[in-house]
Specification:
It is elongated and about 60 Å long. The chain has two domains: 156 residues, 60s Ribosomal Protein L30, Chain: A; 120 residues, 3-Layer(aba) Sandwich (Rossmann fold), CATH 3.40.50.2300. It is of the alpha/beta class and 294 residues long. The chain starts with a strand and ends in a 7-residue tail after the last helix. A five-stranded mixed beta sheet has the order 1-3-8-9-10, with no helix packed on it. A five-stranded mixed beta sheet has the order 2-5-4-6-7, with helices on one face.
């Protein structure tokens, strides 16, 4: 086994099955680990800051210092080693709010959010993460197996994957009508779900909310300004999110042609407005079974 240390503002990619990529001191910094199990390629990036545009000279000197230039370089090097975007597993760690000047500017939070946004644009979904808090982390990637572990203090564990067994239901409700969003919230709460709700008034805002917190289910209208529900479904399909998060469409547009098109895009179900509590409850039970606590 050969230990390859990835320093601060550094990036390494390997195809050697004996290599283990390791980076330390992930405080407000973020580590991005990628692995292609078919090509046997692993890569690890440790960046300090979210955006290279504020310091272009430093970015030109060392692109690994920043999220945008560093992630681009990591993916480019992985591709040169034979990795395919469609096969990559991605996990991140770091983004803590350390007691330092970085805390004032929320660098940790901004670094984590930058990773989510940039990877989303590349069509890559984060499979697990260990971010936030006030602890420094160590990130380790075994190139041969793709096994990733995170050490927080003396405790080592894999990055957390989205859980489907938690009794708390996280919803993302997307509708340009505050009244409709409120109604959906009340129906879900009264249907026996212990739920936390995040809301968005259009598809673009929904993507921003999704990057901040992964929901268990998305409930979306179709006819909205800025980005409508069909465009949102197309974006979720492009990035692969549609395969891991159920999407229920709630809309007045109930033509058979439209419904078939939305289902073909990956929508889990369709409810016509005006809907009844029974309709919504039945669709939720089908999309996310065994999540009601009452």
């Amino acid at each position: 086994m050969s230990m390859q240390i990835v320093g601060i503002s550094d990036c390494k990619v390997s195809k050697d099955p004996d290599d283990v990529l390791l980076t330390y001191a992930l405080g407000s910094c973020v580590g991005v680990a990628i692995h292609d199990p078919v090509a046997g390629v692993g890569g690890l990036l440790h960046y300090m800051l979210p955006d290279a545009s504020l310091q272009p000279a430093k970015a030109a000197e060392n692109p690994c210092m920043f999220a945008d230039t560093g992630i681009a370089l990591l993916l480019e090097r992985a591709a040169r080693h034979g990795a395919s975007r469609g096969r990559l597993t991605v996990r991140i760690a770091g983004g803590a709010q350390m007691v330092s000047g970085a805390e004032v500017f929320q660098i940790g939070r901004r670094n984590s959010l930058a990773a989510r946004k940039l990877l989303w644009k590349e069509g890559l979904i984060i499979a697990g993460e260990a971010t936030g808090g006030e602890v420094s982390r160590t990130l380790r990637l075994e190139v041969a197996t793709g096994r990733i572990t995170v050490k927080e203090g003396s405790l080592a564990h894999p990055p957390e994957e989205p859980s489907r067994s938690s009794p708390m239901l996280n919803t993302l409700i997307v509708d340009d009508s505050p009244l409709t969003r409120s109604l959906i919230r009340r129906v879900i709460d009264r249907a026996g779900y212990a739920a936390e709700h995040v809301e968005a008034s259009d598809g673009r805002q929904a993507i921003s909310r999704l990057l901040e917190r992964r929901p268990d289910v998305i409930l979306t209208d179709i006819n909205m300004p800025v980005m409508d529900g069909e465009q949102l479904l197309n974006e979720l399909r492009r990035t692969g999110v549609i395969h891991s998060i159920p999407v229920i469409v709630i809309s007045t547009d109930a033509t058979r042609e439209r419904i078939d098109r939305l289902l073909a895009l990956g929508a889990t179900g369709y409810i016509s407005k005006p809907f009844t509590p029974e309709n919504l409850r039945a669709e939720l039970d089908r999309a996310i079974p065994n999540r009601r606590i009452a």
